[in-house]
Design a protein that fits this description.
signal, transmembrane, Leucine-rich repeat protein kinase family protein, alpha/beta, twelve-stranded parallel sheet, cell membrane
Amino acid sequence: MVDQRRSALGFVLLLLCLVLFFDCVVVGQTQSRFSEKLILLNLRSSLGLRGTDWPIKGDPCVDWRGIQCENGSIIGINISGFRRTRIGKLNPQFSVDPLRNLTRLSYFNASGLALPGTIPEWFGVSLLALEVLDLSSCSVNGVVPFTLGNLTSLRTLNLSQNSLTSLVPSSLGQLLNLSQLDLSRNSFTGVLPQSFSSLKNLLTLDVSSNYLTGPIPPGLGALSKLIHLNFSSNSFSSPIPSELGDLVNLVDFDLSINSLSGSVPQELRKLSKLQLMAIGDNLLSGTLPVDLFSAESQLQTLVLRENGFSGSLPDVCWSLPKLRILDIAKNNFTGLLPYSSYDSDQIAEMVDISSNTFYGELTPILRRFRIMDLSGNYFEGKLPDYVTGENVSVTSNCLRNERRQKPSAICAAFYKSRGLDFDDFGRPNLTQPTSKNASSGISRRTVIILAAVGGGVAFILLFVILPIILVLCMRHRRRAAQRGNNDRPKPAGEASQQPPKGAQTFDLSRLGNAFSYEQLLQATEEFNDANLIKRGHSGNLFRGFLENGIPVVIKKIDVREGKSEGYISELELFSKAGHQRLVPFLGHCLENESQKFLVYKFMRHGDLASSLFRKSENEGDGLKSLDWITRLKIALGAAEGLSYLHHECSPPLVHRDVQASSILLDDKFEVRLGSLSEAYAQGDAYQSRISRLLRLPQ
């Protein structure tokens, strides 16, 4: 009987303990969830996010957008694509300190959200559970903290399309679980760390569009899982390491626009899974290995342009089964085109073999290509029917009955040097039109060009210049009225109550680097006229090189000429707006009283105006233009940049100086909007007049 009572009492005590234990667990989880909710509300406040995405009354794990939970704890935050409040748009900054307490956070994605500022050191100390960190296109600047190397659980690190500078930290080589590493489109300098050869799980490595120098580390050949490798648009030098031939799983291989030298290593023939090989715009030379590609190769894009390759192009390159783009322009390739025809129904997109020394007749191998640039060679004979149309260029060859060919004497000398016969095609009678026909053709073309130009000028005058003239007149009247008011005596103390014109309303510490005047003098050789790019209405533009070799553009503003408003407006714009379509702003120098300086990233292809009418080597009229695919890409990029200013900035901004010379092009013809000194907020009094004139809604 006593034993039964003891057993019952023990059971009751055990049950009571379990109840208390579970009650403590529930209370703890409730408190934890409440504290994490407060953390997120603080994050919402510091970033200026809208309350509709994270409502106060909602459950973060259920009702909040972009929040991922596990067992009641927050493990993932995705704020990519979030919109800010009006205040948040006016003052964006990298203010994510509340995240420091979310120690279980494994996923953070803020891509596309403007976060101007530096990555805090505590990221690599407090967020050790992070597996995915995506800060792409966030306007982040400064250096990458060395402590990021502590995030050993990271699988994806994306810092692309920002303004990060200095060296790539070698500590990133400690992230042994990393599969995706994207540092592209920044301003990193120095050499690529040797420690990257330890990242054996990497699938993607992209460091394109930076200022990296030195040789490509041979140790990268140990990254056997690598699929995508992009080192384009840097300043890598020395030969291509033969060890890269060990990357047998590689699909995309892009080393274009560097300073690589030497020949193509034989070992690259082991890259049987390649779909893209781009090694153009380098200093490579020699002949291509005959067995570089097999007949079963999966290659779709082959870009070898602007090197010093010589000899013949292997025949297999013409008949690759999945080939879409073949670009070997501006080399020293020579020889006859293959005579075999291609039987597949698959049409390739483009072939560009211009500016080489191919000769002989055009063969049916060209049937598979839709766009062809065969100019600047020594092809002879009659143009076949499959090499015609507006997508074909055959200028500066030795073809019969075609205009704008090489002189017959040059063609004859070329063929004679190779021990071959060349027929004089009777060029004066057959290839030159009579003066009457020539005049007719020229006049017809002239009429078309003049009509197009005249229509464009009329459109500009009607819809752009006329409203601007009216606005300037109104502005002139306003200033005259102000001068009249200024002539009248003012009450004592009234002037002191007015803020100075162009008063600084932004934090200079968040606007890139503060350069010294001596640094800029050294970069431009004391602003030598040889480095002058152009004289602009808001200041003169000079090209220069910083001490670390980074090419830059420096705008020199003479305050004595009344240009202070423009540079202050531009600084204020960069303090509030950040987007990949705006020209990258690197820093400033404001220590000189009479002159101010703004420093931008150098755009390799200049502005759209110079690219549209760049003279061709083979065409004398200078009208060779960008291809239509690139034009469309530029138009879309400009529209994206203007859309950002008009719809994503608060208040909306109007560029006011959109023209071909203000649309800048980087090394990949991506658009960067310049000439931002004229941009005005739509709420400004001056802009209001423009809006009324153009019937734009406020």
